[in-house]
Amino acid sequence: MTTALVTGANRGLGRHLALELLARGATVHAAARRPETVDLPGARPLALDITDPDAVAAAAELAGDVDLLVNNAGVSTGSPLLGDLDGVRAELDVNFWGTLSVVRAFAPVLAANGGGTVVNIASALSWFAAPGAGAYAVSKAANWAMSNALRLELAGQGTHVVSVHLGLADTDMAAGIDGPKTDPALVARRTLDAVDAGEFEVVVDDWSAVVKASLARDPREFYAAHLPA
Fold first, then answer.
1. Catalytic residue at 223?
2. Mean pLDDT of the chain
3. Which pLDDT band, with edges at 50, 70 and 90, does 225 fall under?
4. HSE on the CB side for 116, CA within 13 Å?
């Protein structure tokens, strides 16, 4: 039976991932900065701010039975790289450094429990930049590269690493953005199916597939709409 820890499990995609894990019979540590906001019957609320090293260390000590680590906690400030530097730093602190901190703390836990799996929630924006999302794109590109590197570094202890990429999900984070949005319950199902299948990467939706395919072409084609003629 899987024992999972999901970061940012009190709302949005993290809540749906925790719900799907519970439905599949897993034991779930539902981590959040404010654990009192976790409303998932059967889950084990756990206090965790992934940017706080002491909190991360305490979580790894408390959840020593974990064999599936789902790094879902993330932030989007809308900061361009030439705008508010505090916003840029905040996105990297959470989406890259915070996530890496959690993996580093839980790697020995996973090893002790047979290897297990790490899931990192990345984005279609791992593969392109968009106006108003410069910092987010950089942080998620770093998140994707981190998954690729960790897959190699953790292979020796039998830990598998999965990177998840999607466009907009119908969650609070995307509430003010127009465009087609994927049901977060579907994202959760596809993610956990990919874990069961031992996949390296989950390309959740058609938009993400189009973006990834564009990497093999001249980038001028992709960015033409956003640049002066």
1. no
2. 94
3. confident
4. 23
Task: Count the residues in the chain.
Answer: 229
Q: For residue 183, count other CB atoms closer than 10 A to its CB.
A: 12
What band does 176 get if pLDDT is binned at 50, 70 and 90?
A: low
Please check whether residue 25 is in contact with residue 194, taking contact to mean a CB–CB distance below 8 angstroms: no
**Is position 136 annotated as part of the catalytic site?**
yes
Of the residues 136, 181, 212, 223, only one is catalytic, namely 136
Please give the distance of CA 138 from its chain centroid, rounded to a whole number. Answer: 14
Q: What is the mean pLDDT of residues 23-33?
A: 97
How many other CB atoms are found less than 10 A from the CB of residue 202? 22
CB atoms within 10 A of CB 116: 24
Residue pLDDT, tens place only, 46-59: 999 999 999 999 99
**Residue 29 identity:** H
Output the six-digit token pair for 109: 């836990």
Does the structure show a pLDDT above 60 at 61?
Answer: yes
DSSP-assigned beta bridge partners for residue 112: none
pTM over 0.90: yes
- Which residues are paired to 44 by β-bridges? 29
